[in-house]
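2024-03-11 09:14:02 DEBUG pipeline.ingest accepted 1 chain
2024-03-11 09:14:02 DEBUG pipeline.ingest length=331
2024-03-11 09:14:03 DEBUG pipeline.predict start
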Amino acid sequence: MHLTFSNRHTIKYLAAPLVALLLFPVFGNAQTAFPNRVIKVIVPVAPGGGADAVARMVLEKMSQSLSTPIIIENKAGASGSIAAMEVARAAPDGYTLMQCFVATHSTNPAVLKIKYDPVADFAPVGMMAQTSNVLVVGDKNKAKTLQEFLALARAKAGGMSFSSAGSGSATHLIMEYLENQARVDLVHVPYKGAAPAMQDLLGGQVDAMFPSLTTALPHIKSGRLRALAVASNKRDPVLPDLPTVAEQGFAGFSAIQWWGLCAPAKTPEPVVARLNKALNDALALPDIKARLHEMAAEPTPLSPLQFETFLKAEVAKWTQLVRDTKLQIEQ
């Protein structure tokens, strides 16, 4: 087929839409390019702790990779639920994200009446890092092993206590998990955060705690705390001589502290993929690996699908634990 333009007016009228079509991809790409402005990441804990430190070191490298500023907004409260609700309701454009972690997307859904769905309301981007939880006692405690600790607990049922970062927190539920498996009864003393809970353990006001290894390691190294077992499914490379709970008679016992990156649900897949690549590229950097290792944390690069699968399994595990222990949390 041959087309003939009979006059310049026909050319003029056809040329306008032709120019528009030629320019559309340019303008279209400019409108959808990601990122083209500042990204905000809400960290659901107070500044200065392990979660905050992990977020800052990883997001700094992501900012360089994405060639755009990333600002961090710390918003603690309600075990991270306040931050999670804000991000769940944010525009799904990749410019408002959160550091999701074990409280917001594992234990809270199991024990609290939260106003967000940890899976349906978020687009998982990827995991930053994970660390072991570790059972620790004060240096004056007689227990040298997990079995000795449990023997003491059985000998004075209801007389030994443990601190936690709050009712329903991971530090609370992991100890409940151990109590359920070992058939012991400890007195729970909840605090408003891991820091005061740790301080009272160091001061001898409580007998034990199940904090993250990132939190406990400095005190273990100083000798003020004695580590009895790690809750992960394998020994931690930072303390290779410390056995797991599973090794000491409780097969299948596994609980970890983890930190990830989540976006609001319905964030476009290309945006999630871009963020995931920047995150995993950051985790591959030698200096990030070294700094995380110093904190007893392990970089854990996952795809969005792998992270989503992990989150679903975490919610199911903790929900089942709460059912098994008939645990009720007062809100």
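2024-03-11 09:14:41 DEBUG pipeline.report The chain has a mean pLDDT of 87.
2024-03-11 09:14:41 DEBUG pipeline.predict end
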